[in-house]
Structure formats: structure tokens, C-alpha cells
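[step 3/7] fold_predict: job queued, chain A
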Amino acid sequence: MSRLLSRAKVALENAEHNYKLISKDDCFLDACCYNLQQAVELSLKFLVEMTGQQYAENHDIRANLKILNRVDYHVSNEAELRNKASTLYSWETESRYRESFVAVISDVEEVFALARALVDEAESKIRVETPG
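[step 4/7] structure written:
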């Protein structure tokens, strides 16, 4: 099995750590956003793999949701993920490279909830698919 879910969990853990430090430096918020994006992206790619499909080899959240939908798999909070897809896509690059990057804390907190739910869903998929 791939390491996508493990990487997603580490990215979520890193985001939580970064978030606690944002009062020290804005760079921690930048890192938090990037890690949240990675947690969502990697969780979706894991779920795509679990359905036996090839995931989209890009950072487009909607592309992997579309692949899941084609095999009639719908993630929880899918509508919310679709609504945040553009934000997440911008976080992947802009949080690391753009000096003018700014994140809205309410968006960050909303994505935390979505990322946690998605990681939990992916973990539950392993428990269902793995015998014993």
C-alpha cells in the first residue's frame, strides 16, 4: 500500500504544530496552509488509490474528487471541499513562494475541519478494507 495516507497524517500534524506558532511569525501560517493543502490532497489521492483508480498527478482537489465520483464514491463534506478547492490550490504554491500571500484564519480553521474529517475517512477505509 502507498504511503499517501501516512504523508497526509504527517502533513496534518505539521499544520497543527505550525498553527500554534503563528503569533511568532507569519511564516508559520504559510507553512500551516501548505500542510493543510497537502493533507487534503494526499488523503484524496489515497482514497482514489483505494478505489483502484489512478489519481490525478497534480494539485487539483476537484480532479481527484471527479475521479472518485466516476466510481460512485463521494467523500463526506464533498461540497465544502469543492468550495475550498480554489483556495487550497492557491495555498499549494502561493504559501511557499509569494511574498504577498495572506490567509484568512476562518478559511484555515474550516480547512482544518475538512482535513481532519478526510484523514479520518481515509483511515476508516483501511479498517474496512483490511481483514482482521
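[step 5/7] annotate
The mean pLDDT is 93.
Residues 26-50 form the longest helix (25 residues).
exit 0
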